[in-house]
Amino acid sequence: MKVRVLVSLKAGILDPQGKAVEQGLHGFDFKVEHLRIGRLIEMDIPTYNPDEARAQAQAMCDKLLVNPVMEKATIEVL
Amino acid sequence: MKVRVLVSLKAGILDPQGKAVEQGLHGFDFKVEHLRIGRLIEMDIPTYNPDEARAQAQAMCDKLLVNPVMEKATIEVL
Fold first, then answer.
1. Residues of B in Cβ contact (< 8 Å) with A73
2. Nearest residue in B to A52, CA atom
3. Which residues in chain A come in under a pLDDT of 70?
4. Is residue A23 exposed (0-12), middle (13-18) or buried (19+ Cβ within 10 Å)?
5. How many domains does chain A have?
6. Running DSSP on this structure, what letter comes out for residue B77?
């Protein structure tokens, strides 16, 4: 199954890359606030069971994909 | 409105970072294929009109956020 993991910085963690992009957009006269940049991880997990796919993805987050000190992950099974 | 832009590499563009993470997961005995890493951009656009928020986000993608040669973007208005 196709699984999407959205990894974003926790609230309160400074995001200089996001700040830079936000200022860049202001330079183009776009009105935008609170821009944050995270990681998008897309993958195929070879199972037909959505619950198992989600559990596998959660285990991957815990083992490797996410730094739990600074980041939080949202798992979407597509 | 909260807007999420998912930026991913187009099919056929090599993703060495994704390959490295996939191999790392294989090292932990996870079964996973076709892992690709992209960017997640979250922001607030100060309007209450979802269509306008989407149009603004699309314009930002065209101007700054996305490299149309290598990347494609999916816009989600939340």
1. none
2. B31
3. none
4. exposed
5. 1
6. E
Residue numbers in B near A65 (CB within 8 A): 21
pLDDT of residue B25: 98
Identify the contact set of chain A against chain B, taking CB-CB distances under 8 A: 6-8, 18, 21-22, 24-25, 28, 30-46, 56, 59-60, 63-65
The pTM for the full model equals 0.94
Judge: B37–A41 Cβ closer than 8 Å, yes or no: yes
Structural contact between residues B35 and A42, judged by C-beta atoms closer than 8 angstroms: yes
The model's pLDDT over A40-62, given as tens digits with 9 standing for 90+, comes to 999 999 999 999 999 999 999 99
Q: How far apart are CA B17 and CA B1, in angstroms?
A: 32
pLDDT of amino acid A69: 97
Q: Place B50 in a pLDDT band, splitting at 50, 70 and 90.
A: very high
Domain hosting residue B46, numbered range: 2-77
Query: What does DSSP assign to residue A59?
Result: H
Q: What is the CATH number of the domain that holds B73?
A: 3.30.1280.10
ipTM metric: 0.93
Please give, rounded to a whole number of angstroms, the shortest distance from the CA of A38 to a CA of chain B.
5
The answer to whether A21 contacts B64, with C-beta atoms less than 8 Å apart, is yes
